Amino acid sequence: MSTSIFITKLLGPMFIVVGIALLLKAQMFRKILRELIASPVWLYFAGFLGLRAGMALVLTHNVWAPDWRLIITLIGWITIVRAVISIFQPEWIARAASAILERRAIFVGAAVADLIIGLALSYFGYRA
Questions:
Q1: HSE of 20 in the Cβ direction (CA atoms, 13 Å)?
Q2: How far is residue 76 CA from its own chain's centroid?
Q3: b (16+ CB within 10 A) / e for 85-94
Q4: Helix, strand, or coil here: 36?
Q5: Would the pTM count as exceeding 0.85?
Q6: With 0-12 CB in 10 A as exposed, 13-18 as middle and 19+ as buried, what is 15?
Q7: N or C: which end of the chain has fewer CB within 10 A?
Q8: How far apart are CA 109 and CA 63, in angstroms?
Q9: What does the DSSP 8-state code read for residue 25?
Q10: Which of 126, 124, 118, 108 is nearest to 29 (CA)?
Q11: Per residue in 8-45, pLDDT tens?
């Protein structure tokens, strides 16, 4: 199995589960997000874990082809950028998260985006 297919089969269902959970358990996730942004330790830890995950993804799949595989590469690079910001500028992440908490539409939009990304990745991963 190619690396692209393996990663797609791994990430697709994860994004679907997170998207559905965000939609069905919005209050719980809003509470978790409030606690996360209130703690510099948790923000740093999230950044550290995100950096590891993003680096692992980019090191195993840095494919800039103009097709569905680009989604995986972009997820990896976006994860790295977000992680670096979490480590060096946690207040930016806290402000962004606060904006998400204040606007229900953004929160729901993020959940729907996760669901769509997960469905697309699952389609490309499991149809092959």
A1: 7
A2: 9
A3: bbbeebeebb
A4: helix
A5: yes
A6: buried
A7: N
A8: 27
A9: T
A10: 108
A11: 999 999 999 999 999 999 999 999 999 999 999 999 99
Spans of all domains in the chain: 3-126
Check: CB of residue 80 under 8 Å from CB of residue 74: no
Q: Which residue, chain included where needed, has tokens 């942004």? A: 37
Residue type, 39: S
Cα(first)–Cα(last) distance of the chain, in Å? Answer: 10
The token pair at 99 is 């904006």
- Angle subtended by helix axes 3-24 and 40-60, to nearest 10: 150
Taking only the tens place, the pLDDT of each residue in 75-127 is: 999 999 999 999 999 999 999 999 888 888 988 999 999 999 999 999 999 99
**What's the token pair of residue 60?**
């195993």
Reading the block at residue 45, the tokens are 């830890």
